[in-house]
Amino acid sequence: MTRCRFLLPVMWEKGTAKALPLVGNDTDGIAFWINDQGQAVGYSGNCTTALHGVSWENGIVSPLLDLGTGAIAQGINNRGQIVGQVGSADGTTFYAAVWQNGADGAVTNLRTPPGDAAAFASGINDRGQVVGSSLDSNFNWSHAFIWQDDVMTDLNTLFPASSNLFPVMANKINERGQISGMAIVVSGPDAGNIHAFLATPAHQSMGKSVVAPTRQKSNVPANVGNQLLQRLRLGQFGR
Fold it and tell me: Mean pLDDT, to the nearest integer, of 65-88?
């Protein structure tokens, strides 16, 4: 029998760690991101399941609205917009999501790129540009995406062919529109290896531009996708 290891969300201020409250009788949680106003987001649940996507402000935890089978919040900008993922109503998959008005707002389901089975959003800047990643039917990394003006765009369509990279994970986006993430080398002696990338927009409008990426090789194991999904509790929703 595997022993359950509980995790508690904490906030460090002036060198002191303070545990953040959980929802109801929940025993486990993680805080993933914090904005300049001190608003933090993450999830609350147990050691196997994310039961609630949450935000914390002034020491108070607030559950986010979901589709009935849990959520995880992964990012928040300085306008209070939150991104993450929500479990589908039938509990079989999860979708990228945005909460436009924080804990008080309805959830916007961004769904997935065509052909993919699941997706999550992990970064949002103050312009409301959202980045995230999708997974195939076997829950392997599939596509990195950017969502803006209610349109989801596959980042691979914005990378120049000269990059020789296929982006499968978009992690964060800053105010300049630069995106950090993970990509697979397409061809050559390095084919199949995973690289971290920094993609800089060539034009102001990301949806109408190409992206010029720089890359760094990452010595991560081949099963990094499954390890990361397990660590983030992605897909482990429930009631």
Answer: 95
